[in-house]
Specification:
This protein has 453 residues and is an alpha/beta fold. It has ten helices and 17 strands.
Length: 453
């Protein structure tokens, strides 16, 4: 997108009920309370006028509701997520999709109170975005404290995301970021916003559409005599060859991309699967001979901004980096048939359409439509969650486990106030609630490292 630049302006709206700007008259009585009700996937997270946050408004104390302290996860004085053992080093690695958010939040520096590192007690390894497969494989292999992956480990539907000899139930898995991927390309100036259907995109990767002035693309964009279709016909010969890009190693963004093509097209072409285990297109029946491999979302962005004729798939937040401004972004159709541009609003609508029940066995939110007014409520068809994976048994290094759990709890609560500025959408209430319950399963022996009170 030509005019996108990265904004670091603080979010001043209420984000998921976690950041509230109170009027002066309310300042002394308004509290942020995070209510959790055991054995249900629903969360009620409300800012309320009351002296205590121990009981939800309108819920009798005898109802058995479980609550968390109002300051847990809110980044204010007394927040236990900010209290960690000293001298801890945490190694995070994995998804390049979530890399912009994690690297913005797990460091010191910047605006006071924005970044998590209480009293500089925790050191972090360098997060380089090695990919989702790397995150899963190395957290289960023991070299990472937390692995990040756009695909959680699951045995459902023969997903192939579980490393050898690993039991998924030994790990807590929780969504930490909500974002979107885009289909992007580079055709020089004045060709941003091409309409590209899921069938045309699949044909590009299958090698059955090889030129940008192919009639199927031209006709989606006004035809040969007007609009972008006319501009495609007028492209210089050296610009006309389509050059598909792929990720060179296991990638959750690749999975989301192929999951979208599979869902939107009612199945991929014969011999092609979405490739959930590795997320590498060229091992899954695509026309690999004409692909160019690139490393990570950063490598994809570099190729898309420097090589005329390329087409690829990229995490939305990478468009916000100023030097990626030359990247052109396609308009896609949502399930209601409406052509839309990617935006934080349409990504949020995808999460809304996906509902509250997000688990490792049921997490895809691609190609959906709004339950109400689908023609006027744009739903980005390439939205996805990114996940954190942490071993439940932290007895081998309880200090690091405690720091990791408290960072993750802070990330899915206060950390979400920074999501918009990094190109992500704050996690829905129910997903935050689900994540906190997963973190409560991480223990040192029989002692939970995150508790309700």
């Amino acid at each position: 997108m030509k005019k996108l630049t990265q904004s670091m302006v603080a979010v001043t709206m209420m984000v998921g009920g976690l950041l509230t700007v109170a009027t002066p008259s309310m300042a002394t009585t308004l509290k942020n309370c995070y209510y959790l009700f055991p054995n249900t996937p629903k969360a009620v997270s409300l800012a309320v006028k009351q002296a205590s946050c121990t009981t939800a408004p309108g819920v009798a104390a005898s109802s058995g509701s479980a609550t968390f302290s109002s300051i847990l996860g809110n980044n204010k004085h007394g927040d236990r997520d900010l209290s960690t053992p000293t001298g801890v080093t945490l190694n995070f690695e994995g998804s390049s999709f979530v890399q912009p958010l994690i690297t913005a939040l797990d460091t010191t520096g910047g605006t006071a109170g924005t970044f998590w590192n209480p009293s500089n007690a925790v050191s972090f390894g360098n997060y380089t975005g090695q990919g989702s497969t790397y995150g899963r494989t190395n957290v289960t292999g023991g070299s990472l404290n937390v692995g990040f992956s756009d695909q959680p480990m699951t045995n459902a539907n023969n997903a192939g995301t579980v490393p050898l000899n690993v039991t998924p139930s030994d790990y807590a898995q929780l969504p930490v970021a909500l974002g979107g991927a885009v289909v992007a390309y580079d055709l020089g100036p004045a060709l941003d916003g091409l309409h590209l259907s899921s069938a045309v995109i699949a044909a590009m990767y299958m090698g059955t559409i090889t030129k940008w002035d192919d009639a199927r693309i031209v006709n989606l964009n006004g035809g040969p005599t007007k609009g972008l279709g006319k501009k495609l016909k007028a492209l210089p010969t050296q610009y006309k060859t389509i050059k598909p890009l792929e990720r060179s190693s296991g990638s959750g963004t690749t999975f989301a991309f192929t999951d979208y093509l599979n869902t939107a097209n009612g199945g991929l072409p014969t011999g092609v699967t979405a490739g959930p285990s590795s997320g590498v297109l060229d091992t899954k029946g695509w026309a690999a001979a004409h692909f160019t491999p690139v490393s990570g979302n950063a490598g994809m962005a570099t190729a898309l901004s420097s090589t005329i004729g390329t087409v690829g798939y990229l995490e939305y937040s990478y468009l916000l980096v100023p030097y990626n401004a030359p990247i052109d972004v396609a308009m896609l159709q949502d399930k209601a048939g409406v052509w839309i541009k990617p935006s934080l609003t349409s990504i949020q609508n995808a999460a809304n359409a996906g509902g509250n029940t997000i688990t490792p066995d049921n997490f895809s939110i691609v190609f959906l439509q709004a339950a109400k007014n689908p023609k006027t409520t744009p739903v980005w068809p390439l939205a996805t969650y990114s996940w954190a994976i942490i071993k439940k048994d932290q007895s081998a290094n309880a200090a690091a486990g405690t720091a990791a759990v408290r960072f993750l709890d802070w990330l899915i609560h206060y950390g979400q106030t920074q999501a918009n500025s990094q190109g992500f959408v704050p996690l829905p209430f129910a997903v935050q609630n689900y994540g906190r319950h997963q973190l409560m399963k991480v223990k040192n022996g029989a002692t939970a490292l995150l508790t309700a009170n």
